[in-house]
C-alpha cells in the first residue's frame, strides 16, 4: 500500500511540474505522471476487489464452519437421546425384574402364611376333638 501511495505522490509531482512548464519534456513527464496515476488507480481498484474477495471467502468459511458445528451438535444430541433411551429401557427392565421378584416373594410369603394358618386350624381342630 505504501508503494501505491508513493506512486500516487510521484504522479502528482509530475503533474505539478507539467503545469509550470510547457516544454516537450514537461508534456512527456505529464503523460508519464498520468500513466502512473492510472496504474495507481488500477492497483487500488485491484486491491479493493481482492479485499472484497477475501471478505467473501471469509464469510463463506464462517458459514461453512457454523453449518459444520450445527451438524456436530445435532449428532451429539442424537447420540445423547439414544443413550438416554437405552438407559430408560435398562431402568424399566430392572424395575420389571424387581417387581417380578417382589411378587414371587409376596406369593411365597402368602403361601407360607396360609400354610401356617391351615396348620394352626388343624391343630385347633385336633385339640377340640380330643
From TrEMBL:
Residues in the signal sequence: 1-17
Instruction: State the superkingdom.
Output: Bacteria
Give me the segments passing through the membrane.
none
Keywords, A to Z, come to: Signal
Q: Where is the composition biased (Basic and acidic residues)?
A: 119-130
Write out the ranges of the annotated region (Disordered). 24-130
UniProt lists compositionally biased (Low complexity) regions at 24-101
Kindly provide the name given to this protein in its UniProt entry. Answer: Outer membrane protein
Amino acid at each position: 500500500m505504501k508503494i501505491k501511495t508513493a506512486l500516487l505522490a510521484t504522479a502528482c509531482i509530475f503533474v505539478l511540474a507539467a503545469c509550470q512548464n510547457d516544454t516537450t519534456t514537461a508534456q512527456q513527464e505529464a503523460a508519464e505522471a498520468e500513466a502512473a496515476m492510472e496504474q495507481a488507480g488500477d492497483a487500488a481498484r485491484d486491491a479493493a476487489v481482492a479485499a472484497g474477495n477475501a471478505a467473501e471467502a471469509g464469510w463463506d468459511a464462517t458459514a461453512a464452519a457454523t453449518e459444520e458445528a450445527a451438524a456436530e451438535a445435532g449428532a451429539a444430541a442424537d447420540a445423547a437421546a439414544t443413550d438416554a433411551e437405552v438407559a430408560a429401557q435398562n431402568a424399566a427392565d430392572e424395575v420389571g425384574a424387581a417387581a417380578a421378584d417382589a411378587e414371587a416373594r409376596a406369593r411365597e410369603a402368602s403361601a407360607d402364611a396360609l400354610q401356617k394358618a391351615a396348620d394352626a386350624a388343624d391343630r385347633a381342630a385336633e385339640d377340640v376333638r380330643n
